[in-house]
Amino acid sequence: MTEFLCSLCPRRCGALRTGTEGGGFCGMPALPVVARAALHFWEEPCISGTRGSGTVFFSGCNLGCVFCQNGSISHGRFGRPVTIPRLREIFQELIAQGAHNINLVTPTHFAPAIREALEAPLAVPVVWNSGGYELPEALRILEGKVQIYLPDLKYADGALAARYSGAADYFETASGRWGGASGMQTACCSGASSSATCCCPARWRIPRPCWTGSPAPSRRVRCWCPSCPSIPPKRGRRGCSGERSPGRRAGRPGLTWRTWG
Questions:
Q1: Of the candidates 167, 160, 168, 175, which has an alpha carbon nearest to the alpha carbon of residue 211?
Q2: What pTM was estimated for this model as a whole?
């Protein structure tokens, strides 16, 4: 698919996306734009393992959080366009370097192209590392192609989701995606921003599974609480570098693991 009117994410902006040009919220073309591809040793331990995770960072984003630590990629759209055959080659090159898996970072808006690149099975599992703001039908096209669903659950509060990402329906949408598509296993859900109540002075808190019910047994949740005191600006107002990148300003954030169920 090299040209379509986009309805891949819950924004359903209907933008015309061609092989080389794109509009709408993410501003990306139909063909992938890759910012970085390399072994990554600082993902969740169960993903990085001992040899590293073969991460492929895609440019653009359908969520657009104002506090994004990868702002130059998600907002600045830094990256290089690649063809679908070249994307497949990148996967194979990372596997040849010893990657435990292929880790697709912020891939939602390129789902159809990625599906084509994964037409033939890879020798390692594929990780769908997203912001969780996705439609079931978009995930469904990946059935049998992606083995691990690794969403970042950003918010448990609609007002904050609207303020910082322009997505008031975020929690209702993302909380329903915990299981991903059929055949995808949720390795963990890493929270990365504010929720309804706060547990630290900076008003940054990791959203816990506070909705009715709970995640499946033994589902791992990474709790990430940046120590930066800055409160992000509202979406639409450009903040200072500290506001946009709290983790970078504060240094390496503390990480803890919790298991619900």
A1: 175
A2: 0.75
